[in-house]
Amino acid sequence: MTTDIKAALRALHIETPSWAYGNSGTRFKVFAQRGVPRDPYEKLADAAQVHAHTGVAPTVALHIPWDKVADYGHLAAHARELGVGIGAINSNVFQDDAYMLGSVTNPDPAVRRKALAHLLECVDIMDATGSDTLKLWFSDGTNYPGQDDIRARQDRLAEALSAVYARLGEGRRFLLEYKLFEPAFYTTDVPDWGTAYAHCLRLGPKAQVVVDTGHHAPGVNIEFIVAFLLREGKLGGFDFNSRFYADDDLMVGAADPFQLFRIMYEVVRGGGLTAGVAFMLDQCHNIEPKIPGQIRSVMNVQEATAKALLVDRDALAAAQAGGDVLGANAVLMDAYNTDVRPLLAELREETGLAPDPMAAYAKSGYFEKIAAERVGGTQAGWGA
Ligand code: LRH
Ligand code: MN
Prior knowledge:
Blueprint: H1 2-11, E1 14-17, H2 40-54, E2 59-63, H3 72-82, E3 85-90, H4 109-129, E4 133-137, E5 141-142, H5 150-167, E6 173-177, E7 187-188, H6 193-203, E8 207-212, H7 222-231, E9 235-240, H8 257-269, E10 278-281, H9 290-309, H10 313-321, H11 325-336, H12 341-350, H13 357-364, H14 366-373
Parallel strand pairs: 1-2, 1-10, 2-3, 3-4, 4-6, 6-8, 8-9, 9-10
Antiparallel strand pairs: 5-7
Helix pairs in contact: 1-9, 2-3, 2-9, 2-13, 4-5, 7-8, 8-9, 9-13, 10-11
């Protein structure tokens, strides 16, 4: 049992987002922190620290144009030298003035062409970096009833998605991300999993859905969505974070570790650990140190996954079949209430890592080094 669990945990890869290493904040303030990277190369170096101390964060998601460079092949080679790889390529059609009334759904065909050109440029960047995943999130929506035609916007969205789909090479896919609201406050053109699923189903196997855990209405049962999409073969990945209110982008598992456990249990139960599901973080460390924030987040996903793998599936199935409501619930709670930190510490030592990645990073002196080196230049951020 433990050997299999350890094998599954060793195989669990969590992708960190380049933008988590840059400055971030809210509309009220973006706080600058010492040692923050000034370019994608320095972001990769910081991401490599997370992998060096956890052993399970071997890829980094890029966001275009935040990570725009002259030579993407050179950036990918630099990543390899650092011991990491380039993960999902994230498009950005939400920060250009032209997109005020939408990007691919904009009433103006010229704006739609501009947005599509960016998405296709991101496909080229996939090819240049060896990435096999394009992540598409659209901030598109409206703020007032009547502002635009809801149905027509879906037609425009479908047209753009099929153009991108047609350009995907062999072994490539795109993940369509949904979000209930913000920045639009009346309609959002991809507001929920059903809309994303319907568009992906119509397109084909290279189109899957990404579940950002901060993008649901309060009270939504996210693990149900996970179970359903896995069953359909349409769960492409996660944007992990946590929230108390809206899209807070806090550390995954920080606000609701029990929800993260329930989600990872449906992943384990649905075969999602070996189904090419991308486990990506999508977070902003507005006030906490960035690299430790990522290390802690990776550990939170590891702990939730370890607990999910500990669920006694036979006992659970027997209790469920027998209608033993409390018994079945108790089986899941036993796993959730198990302290898996000793198991994970042991696993890290067996793979030559320090048992406590947070302490190891703090002792490494890396922060002091980058804080001293990274003086001058422009710190990376969302550039919003
Ligand atoms: C939108 C989102 C999307 C990213 C952005 C950084 O809220 O979750 O995944 O492009 O955050
Ligand atoms: Mn996201």
